[in-house]
Design a protein that fits this description.
The chain has two domains: about 210 residues, Rossmann fold; about 170 residues, Rossmann fold (3-Layer(aba) Sandwich), CATH 3.40.50. The chain contains 14 helices and 15 strands. The protein is α/β, with parallel strands linked by helices and about 425 residues long. Helices cover about 35% and strands about 20% of the residues. The relative contact order is 0.12. The longest helix is centred in the middle third of the chain and has 18 residues. Helix 7 links the parallel strand 8 and strand 9. Helix 1 packs across helix 14 and helix 7 packs across helix 12. It is globular, with a radius of gyration of 21 Å. The strands form three sheets. The protein has a seven-stranded parallel beta sheet with strand order 3-2-1-4-5-6-7, sandwiched between helices. The chain has a six-stranded parallel beta sheet with strand order 10-9-8-11-12-13, sandwiched between helices. Strands 14-15 form a two-stranded antiparallel ribbon. The two termini are about 25 Å apart.
């Protein structure tokens, strides 16, 4: 299999999972056995030029967010490219934050598989693992019930593609127990590579800056974090005050959320709204900080931002809930944990990090080590193996028993190997 398509949001678009899509494409492009990668990407507003990723990579922008015909555009593009396989990089709202376009888009992997093109899905979340009352559906119990009911059909249909991989064990448990899936695997999120010239300073040499990044306004909100920083600064000397740098953008369902907060806190020089963090600025964004804060009301999947913080040696503070428990107990990441939705607990975690640089550095060093154990190159290698097996459906060569997850073994050697359960 020398020519593949990757269907994903892709920078310079700011669509969900666009950074993951970029690093996945780069990992495939680095393989000598891959000759061509066609990125079937989302359209975006603005005149920013396409990234120059070399002669192997061609980007075709054919679909728009919330377009109910996105799947048709994708299938037409796949047919015209004559690729040998297609890999979809998705989460539940990849194609829209409205029910119909979101669901229709997620049916595309099954259709491309049924038309004879080997197709697999990297699924970053599942509706069953999301508290819908904490999402943009919070004010509509009817829509919550509708999405919950439709999710079984959508997930069952996606499992009719060649295979599905998920990034957390808890998601794989759902696919195994609820859906009896035999073509589902757990493959960890993978760490994004460092640029060759990135220097990671020790925490002791970093200023009192705390960062947070995401698409804000639904279950990722900033009121508690801002209040916590302001409360701490009230009792700190001027040269000890903490600066909060907020990177990211509004969630599509909450336009204007960040601008409203920025206007509210424009008199506070220690609350900085950075805006969207471009790929080339990610390293500087994290390495300037002593701590990355993840103050979520709920979780919807393995956090790409958390993995970015880890690889740049920036310890994290996050609530012990949902998917954060998975990355702590099963992936081995360490952080300053606090009780969910509790501002005082968040303040204590921030203070602990600032006052105990030795502990923070130990977390940072641990997370760098864990991140290096599962690289995007390893993830791409496994996805390619699975894609090659979709024609026969014989995945047993990649695992010993039916319904067993595909994990990666953490080893000292630079290239991880498979651990078969």
């Amino acid at each position: 299999m020398k020519t593949i398509a990757i269907v994903t949001a892709f920078p310079p678009s700011a669509g969900s999972l666009n950074e993951y899509g970029l690093h996945l494409v780069n990992a495939f492009a680095a393989r000598s056995d891959i000759k061509k990668i066609i990125v079937i990407a989302d359209k975006y507003k603005g005149a920013t030029p396409e990234l120059d990723l070399g002669p192997k990579v061609e980007v075709k922008r054919v679909w728009r967010f919330n377009d109910p015909l996105a799947g048709i555009h994708i299938l037409r593009a796949l047919k015209s490219t004559q690729v040998e396989g297609a890999l979809y990089n998705l989460q539940t709202a990849s194609f829209g934050d409205r029910e119909i376009p979101a669901a229709l888009g997620l049916l595309t992997p099954m259709i491309s598989q049924k038309t004879g093109l080997p197709s697999g899905v990297i699924m970053h979340n599942l509706v069953e693992a999301v508290d819908l009352s904490k999402t943009n559906l919070a004010k509509s119990p009817f829509r919550q019930k509708l999405v919950g009911a439709a999710s079984y059909f959508v997930t069952k249909t996606m499992l009719m593609s060649g295979f599905m991989t998920v990034t957390l064990d808890s998601f794989w448990d759902i696919l195994k127990e609820k859906y009896k899936a035999k073509n589902a695997f757990m493959v960890p999120h993978g760490s994004f590579p460092l640029a060759s010239d990135v220097q990671i300073p020790a925490l002791a040499y970093r200023p009192n800056i705390i960062v947070t990044m995401g698409k804000f306004g639904t279950y990722k909100r900033l009121e508690r974090t801002i209040a916590a920083i302001q409360k701490l600064n009230m009792s700190r000397a001027e040269n000890k005050k903490v600066k909060l740098v907020i990177g990211g953008s509004d969630h599509p369902a909450t336009p204007g959320y960040l601008k409203s907060l920025e206007n509210e806190h424009k008199a506070d020089a220690n609350i900085v709204f950075h805006g969207y963090v471009a790929e080339e600025d990610v390293a500087t964004f994290f390495t300037q900080a002593k701590l990355a804060v993840f103050d979520y009301d709920s979780t919807t999947g393995s956090s790409g931002v958390l993995h970015q913080a880890a690889i740049y040696g920036t310890p994290a503070a996050y609530p012990m809930m949902g998917d954060f428990i998975d990355v702590t107990e099963r992936e081995g990441l360490k952080g300053f944990n606090f009780i969910p939705l509790d501002q005082v607990a968040l303040e204590n975690s921030i203070t602990e990090c600032l006052d105990n640089s030795t502990l923070g550095q130990s977390f940072a060093d641990n997370n760098i080590h864990v991140s290096k154990g599962v690289t995007m190159e390893t993830v791409a290698s496994i996805q390619l193996q699975l894609l090659k097996k979709t024609k026969s459906g014989n995945f047993n060569v990649l695992r010993r028993a039916k319904n067993s997850a595909l994990h990666l073994k953490e080893i000292e050697a630079p290239r991880p190997t498979l651990r078969l359960n």
